TrEMBL record:
<keyword id="KW-0479">Metal-binding</keyword>
<keyword id="KW-0170">Cobalt</keyword>
<dbReference type="GO" id="GO:0003856">
    <property type="term" value="F:3-dehydroquinate synthase activity"/>
</dbReference>
<dbReference type="InterPro" id="IPR016037">
    <property type="entry name" value="DHQ_synth_AroB"/>
</dbReference>
<feature type="domain" description="3-dehydroquinate synthase N-terminal">
    <location>
        <begin position="61"/>
        <end position="173"/>
    </location>
</feature>
<comment type="function">
    <text>Catalyzes the conversion of 3-deoxy-D-arabino-heptulosonate 7-phosphate (DAHP) to dehydroquinate (DHQ).</text>
</comment>
<dbReference type="InterPro" id="IPR056179">
    <property type="entry name" value="DHQS_C"/>
</dbReference>
<dbReference type="Pfam" id="PF01761">
    <property type="entry name" value="DHQ_synthase"/>
</dbReference>
<keyword id="KW-0547">Nucleotide-binding</keyword>
<dbReference type="InterPro" id="IPR030960">
    <property type="entry name" value="DHQS/DOIS_N"/>
</dbReference>
<dbReference type="InterPro" id="IPR030963">
    <property type="entry name" value="DHQ_synth_fam"/>
</dbReference>
<keyword id="KW-0456">Lyase</keyword>
<feature type="domain" description="3-dehydroquinate synthase C-terminal">
    <location>
        <begin position="175"/>
        <end position="318"/>
    </location>
</feature>
<keyword id="KW-0862">Zinc</keyword>
<dbReference type="InterPro" id="IPR050071">
    <property type="entry name" value="Dehydroquinate_synthase"/>
</dbReference>
<protein>
    <recommendedName>
        <fullName>3-dehydroquinate synthase</fullName>
        <ecNumber>4.2.3.4</ecNumber>
    </recommendedName>
</protein>
<dbReference type="Pfam" id="PF24621">
    <property type="entry name" value="DHQS_C"/>
</dbReference>
Length: 355
C-alpha cells in the first residue's frame, strides 16, 4: 500500500489518496478553502483535481508560472488576497502545482496569521519526489535559491501520477534528476533500478516514484532540521544551485530548469568525490554517461565558472564562512561537510567540459 502515515507530512498515492484527502477536509471543516495554482496548473490540473477531489466550495489563487515568481512579492500579493477574501486561522490552503507552488504556498500558509493548515498536491515529477515532501517552504532572494523560508510539514501530500501526463518532457526530465540523486545517495540497487525509468511514460513508473518518496521521507524523518543525514539530499546541489542561480541572473545564458542544473551538479560532485574520497572513477564515468544521455551539455567559460564559485558563499549548508559539500565514497556511502578547494572545482568543470 502506497502511504506514509504520520500526524504531519502523511503521503498518500493515487486512487486511495483522494479518500484520505476527503476525510481530512471533513475533519478539518475549514472556514474557507483556498487552492493555489499557477497559470499552467490552473489550465491543465485544476479541472482534474476538482473532479477527483469532489470539492465544491473553494477560492482559487493564481500566480504566474516560473521560478522567477518564487519571490517575496508573490507572497505579499497572496497574503493580501487571503486577507481580502476573509481567510482566518481555520482556513486551509491546498497547493496544486510543481515545486514553486508547493514551496511558495507552504511558506505563505506557514506565515499567514502565524500559520494556517496546508496540503500539497504535487503535479510535477520534481514536486512529487522532492519539493512537496519534507517540509521545506520558502522563496528565492533575487536569483539566490531558497534563501528565505521555514521548515514545516504539510498536513498531507496527495500524489497522483496521472498529473504527470500534463507535463512536457523537459519538466519530467528535470524531476528525474532528483530520482537519480536518490539512487546515488541511497543504494546501488536503487541506482540501477532508477536508470530504467521511462521518461516517455512517467505515470507508469509509480513504483520507482514511490521508492524515491520513501527514500526522501526516511531521511527527513530521521533529520528534519538538516543537522546531519538530511544534508545528503543536497548531493549535486551546492554547485547545481550556483549554476541555476547564475543562469537565472544572466541576460545571455539560457535559464535552466532545476533538474537540468542539478544534473550538472551531480556530475561535478561525483568527480570531486573521485578526487577527494576515492570514489571509483569507472562509476563516475558511468554516472556522467547516464546523465548526459538525458541532459544537454552546457558550456561554461572561465568567467562563468568564476561567477558560479562566487555564488557558493550563499549556499545554505555553509558554516563559519566555509563552503561545505556532500560527497560520496561510493554509491550509497556519503560524507557530509566536505571542504573543496577552488582548484578542484575548476578541475571538475574541466572534466565536465571534456566528457
Amino acid at each position: 500500500m502506497m502511504e506514509i502515515k504520520k500526524e504531519r507530512g502523511a503521503v498518500y498515492c493515487n486512487e486511495e489518496a483522494w479518500k484520505h484527502l476527503k476525510s481530512k477536509l471533513v475533519s478539518l471543516h475549514p472556514s474557507k478553502l483556498f487552492i493555489l495554482v499557477n497559470t499552467h496548473t490552473a489550465r491543465f490540473c485544476l479541472p482534474v483535481f476538482l473532479e477527483l477531489s469532489e470539492i465544491t466550495s473553494y477560492e482559487v489563487l493564481t500566480i504566474e508560472a516560473g521560478e522567477k515568481y518564487k519571490n517575496i512579492t508573490s507572497c505579499v500579493d497572496l497574503w493580501h488576497l487571503l486577507s481580502e477574501k476573509g481567510a482566518d486561522r481555520k482556513s486551509v490552503l491546498i497547493n496544486l502545482g510543481g515545486g514553486v507552488v508547493t514551496d511558495l504556498g507552504g511558506f505563505v500558509a506557514s506565515t499567514f496569521k502565524r500559520g494556517i493548515e496546508f496540503i500539497n498536491i504535487p503535479t510535477s515529477l520534481l514536486a512529487m519526489v522532492d519539493a512537496s515532501v519534507g517540509g521545506k517552504n520558502g522563496v528565492d532572494l533575487g536569483t539566490l535559491k531558497n534563501q528565505i523560508g521555514v521548515i514545516k510539514e504539510p498536513l498531507q501530500v496527495i500524489v497522483d501520477t496521472n498529473f504527470l501526463k500534463t507535463l512536457p518532457k523537459n519538466e519530467v526530465v528535470s524531476g528525474y534528476a532528483e530520482m537519480l540523486k536518490h539512487g546515488l545517495i541511497h543504494s546501488e540497487d536503487y541506482w540501477n533500478d532508477v536508470q530504467k525509468f521511462d521518461i516517455k511514460n512517467p505515470a507508469s513508473e509509480e513504483n520507482l516514484i514511490w521508492k524515491s518518496i520513501l527514500i526522501k521521507n526516511e531521511v527527513v524523518t530521521e533529520d528534519p532540521f538538516e543537522q546531519n543525514r538530511r544534508k545528503t539530499l543536497n548531493y549535486g546541489h551546492t554547485l547545481g544551485h550556483a549554476i541555476e542561480s547564475y543562469c537565472l541572473a544572466s541576460e545571455t545564458k539560457k535559464t535552466l530548469l532545476h533538474g537540468e542544473a542539478i544534473a550538472i551538479g551531480i556530475i561535478l560532485a561525483t568527480f570531486l568525490s573521485t578526487e577527494l574520497l576515492n570514489f571509483p572513477k569507472q562509476k563516475c564515468q558511468h554516472i556522467a554517461n547516464v546523465i548526459l544521455s538525458h541532459y544537454p551539455k552546457v558550456e561554461f567559460t572561465e568567467t562563468t565558472i568564476n561567477d558560479c564559485i562566487e555564488l557558493l558563499k550563499y549556499d545554505k549548508k555553509n558554516q563559519h564562512g566555509k563552503v561545505l559539500f556532500v560527497l560520496l565514497n561510493d554509491i550509497g556511502k556519503h560524507e557530509i561537510n566536505c571542504e573543496v578547494p577552488n582548484d578542484l572545482i575548476y578541475k571538475a568543470f574541466s572534466y565536465y567540459k571534456n566528457l
